[in-house]
Amino acid sequence: MANSFDDVNTEVNAIKTNVRQAFKKVEPLISQLDTLIKEKNVFKQQVDEIQRKYDDLGNELSELQKKLSEQKVEFESQKQTNENRLVSLQREVDLLTLDKKKLSEKTKTQDEKITTLESQKEELLQSLRDRSS
Description:
The protein is rod-shaped, with a radius of gyration of 55 Å. It has one domain (1-94). It starts with a helix and ends with a helix. The chain has one helix at 2-132. The chain is 98% helix and 0% strand. It is mainly α.
């Protein structure tokens, strides 16, 4: 029986040794696992932060696109107003040019009449002088 007890004791000691060796092999793996878990948590925080920034930029982009769209509508409206005003002013210029042309022709006609009348006046004056002499 003593032999049997010694055998069991030897086997228990061998098992203890195997367990210690297994723990020695597992401890670095557990440490690595803890490190990896910590790194994973850091990466997750970084990913979450990047996602928040991405979402913020997406919201900002949406706002800018909305403002751009509003400004585009305003610009197109202003452009149309300016084009209409330009057409209106061009009509006014055309009418004024026509009026100027008519007045110029009228002035020319008046000048010709004045020249004719002055010539007639001179002839009449000359005729009166001739009669009086």
